[in-house]
Amino acid sequence: MAANQAAQRRTTRPEKTPASGVKQRGRPRSFDREQALRQAIWTFWERGYEATSVADLTRAMGIGPPSLYAAFGDKRTLFEEVLEEYVKSYGEFGTRALDEEPTARAGFARMLREAAAEFAAPGRPHGCLVIHAATNCTTPEVEEALRERRNANIADFESRIRAALAARELPEDCDPAALARYTAAVFQGMSQQSRDGASREDLERVADLAMTAWPPAP
Fold it and tell me: What is the pLDDT of residues 69-87, one digit of tens each?
C-alpha cells in the first residue's frame, strides 16, 4: 500500500517548466556558421559542384546533415551562398584592378597578373571556383547560374573596353567584343592551367604574353 501511495504521489507531481514560462525551442546552434561556410567553399572549390556530395560537405564542415539543412538549406542552396561568399572573399581582385587602374590596358594587365597569384596561391585549392565548379556539372540550374556569371564577366570586360575606346585609349579599329572574349578566354585558361600544375611564374608569363595581343594606344 505504501508503494502504491508513493507511486500515486509520483504520478501527480507537476512537471518542471522553465522559470520564464516560455517553451524551450531546442538547443542553440553548436557550430560556427561562418567557419562551416568557409569549409564548404573550399570543398566545392576543390571538387566542383557535381562531384561534391552532402557527405563530403558535412565531413568538411564538421556537422551532421540535419544541421546542414537547418542552417544552409539543401546542397544547391548552400552552393548559391558559397558562390556569393567566394566572389566577395576571393574573386574581387579583378574588379579592383579594373576600377583602380587609370586605363583599361593597365587594369586588365593587373587583373591577369593578380589572377596568376590568386590561382596558384599555396595552401588552398587552385584556379577559380566559378570556372571549376562547372566541370561535368549536370544540374541545369547550377550550370546556368555559373554560365550567367561567366557571361556577365565578359559583358563587363566589353563595357570597360568600349569605354576605353570612347576615351581614345585604344585605336578606332579595336573590336571590343572580340578583345573582351579573348581576355576572358585567357583568364579561364589560366584557371585550368593552375589546376594542372602551372606555377605562379608560369601564369605570369602567360598574362604578360596575352597583353601583347592588345592593340597599342593610338
Answer: 999 999 999 999 999 999 9
Q: 116-168: per-residue pLDDT in tens?
A: 999 999 999 999 999 999 888 889 999 999 999 999 999 999 999 999 999 99
Query: What does the domain layout of the chain look like in residue ranges?
Result: 32-89, 90-211
Measured between alpha carbons, how far is 193 from 203 in angstroms, rounded to an integer? 8
Q: How many CA atoms lie within 13 A of 64 on its CB side?
A: 3
Cell of 15: 512537471
Tell me which residue of 142, 38, 129 sits closest to 80, measured CA to CA: 142
Cell numbers at 44, concatenated: 566545392
Just give the CATH number of 32-89: 1.10.10.60
Domain 90-211 grouped into CATH 1.10.357.10 = yes
Contacts of 206 (CB under 8 A, 6+ apart): 112, 116, 186, 189, 190, 193, 198
- Axis-axis angle for helices 93-100, 104-119 (nearest 10): 160
